[in-house]
Amino acid sequence: MSSTPTPGATVASVSSRRWLTLVAVGLAQLMVVLDATVVNIALPSAQGELHFSDGDRQWVVTAYSLAFGSLLLLGGRVSDLIGRKRTFLIGLVGFALASALGGAAPTFEVLIAARALQGAFAALLAPTALAVLTTTFTVPKERARAFGVFGAIAGAGGAVGLLLGGVLTEQLDWRWNLYINVFIAAVAVVGTLMFVPNVLRTGPRPRLDVPGTILISGALFGIVYGFSNAVTEGWDSPLTWGVLVAAGILLIAFVVWQTQAKHPLLPLSVVLDRNRGAAFIAVMIAGAGMFGIFLFVTYYMQTSLGFSPIQTGLAFLPMIGMLVLAAQISTNFLLPRLGPKIMVPFGMAFGVVGMLLLTRLDLDSSYAANVLPALMVLGLTMGTIMPAAMQTATLGVDRQFAGVSSAMVNTSQQVGGSVGTALLNTIAATVATDYVANHLPPSDLVVAQAAVTSYAAAYWWDAAIFAGGAVITALLFRRRGQGVSLTSGHAAADSVKDAEPVVVH
In sequence order, which residues have a C-beta less than 8 Å from that of residue 4 and are 6 or more positions away? Predict the structure, then answer.
């Protein structure tokens, strides 16, 4: 005869499995993040085999980011409505099948469809992974450690993708950049079935805000598409501005609707909380800043230093090591003592320093003396910002909105990356064109120097982005004692209260 588990048994059950839950969640997060970059290195090989044009090439990346970015809030809300474990499993299986389809793609059109499906299922996975983490780790000290690991994965995924993409493309075939997800997802599915608890909902089942979902999905699609179009078509394109203006109108309509909807998709209190809003902004700025690190440094190492794809990926490993170390130190020791008001702006300040170091790179620079120190500082940057911002963004949210709040973290990162891509790429392209025009006739040396000069301009703007982030987050985050502390008894009580629904394995 079955009986409802006692609260003590529930806590013990969750306690014994939560670190293995982190492994399953971490694998899913790694898969989602690295898939945004792993395909980039495979593009030339895929283009040669499937015979698509340079103009069509960007859609292999854009199809993923459009579906992912526009459906994130819906994905987060779905996990609130039908349960975290069920949503997580659907996302994992769907992502694996979409990856297999892309790996076996016989034509360009099938590859694009598969990438869009990957993005759609990633929009289920990413917020659900963070929501599972938020509701699983309720003890403040363990929560900090778990978010340190998760934040490190989120920050390092892009660099891991570059390394993995280089190895798979050089040693096997470009298709393995997609097939690899099937194996990662399979391990994550087994881990989820065994270790992620089922949480049985108590009370009335909430409803989906259909008008709000349509409005915000359209707005996010417009933002990501508009900035992506600016990269390829330029800022003078009517389509770029038309889509961005439409996205702005939809966003305003969404905010107005949320103030009167009976079952709002994103209660404005989730966003307007001062600490949480500052954390979302921090994630967005970090997303914009990371673009400058990976894209331009990757180009510099391959074109100016002559690195192979594998060498380029390996060159980022020290940055990942520093990121992981910084994430653990900041979340376990510094954040509980200093709070996000100090930690996040300091992380932004490190970003300024790292970008300024990159501005000094020229054709005679070396990896060890010039590139490596900058990457180490930037690893410190991301390891300080991301875990602190993620933990703060999801702290104290009502359990029924944990999924959509987690989705806002991913949405902020995605929008930041899209904005950073468009702005920095446009700046770099303009500077390179002007440099060549002022140094006629163009030679190989002039073209090479134009590229390095354009990267430096992007780094200067990236430094300005981080500097602005330092000021904004220092002003917005509350002082310690003004809000719920990350390790206070109130936070712990809120977390325990959030975990009250019955847990069944």
Answer: 502
Q: Which residues of 22-52 are buried (b: 16+ CB within 10 A; e: fewer)?
A: bebbbbbbbbbbbbbbbbbbbbeebbeebeb
Tokens representing residue 470 in the block: 């330092």
Q: Is 427 helix (H, G, I), strand (E, B) or coil?
A: helix
- Residue 132 near residue 21 (C-beta atoms within 8 A): yes
Please check whether residue 162 is in contact with residue 41, taking contact to mean a CB–CB distance below 8 angstroms. Answer: yes
- Write down the domain spans for the chain: 13-196, 209-264, 267-482
pTM for the whole thing?
Answer: 0.78
Q: What letter does residue 60 receive in the DSSP assignment?
A: H
CB 281 within 8 A of CB 469: yes
At residue 8 the predicted structure's pLDDT band, cuts being 50, 70 and 90, is very low
b/e burial code for range 399-409 (CB count within 10 A of at least 16 → b): bbbbbbbbbbb
Q: Which residues pair with 504 in a beta bridge?
A: 198
Q: What length is written for the chain?
A: 505
pLDDT tens digits, 231-258: 777 778 888 899 999 999 998 998 888 8
- What distances in angstroms separate CA 474 from CA 43, 235, 250, 348, one per listed residue? 40, 32, 30, 10
Residues 480-501 have pLDDT tens digits of 644 444 433 334 334 333 333 4
pLDDT single digits (tens) 318-343? 888 898 888 888 877 888 888 888 88
267-482 maps to which CATH number? Answer: 1.20.1250.20
Within 13 Å and on the Cβ side, how many CA atoms surround 282?
39
Distance separating alpha carbons of residues 294 and 299, to the nearest angstrom:
8
Residue range 13-196, CATH number:
1.20.1250.20
CB of 264 closer than 8 Å to CB of 212: yes
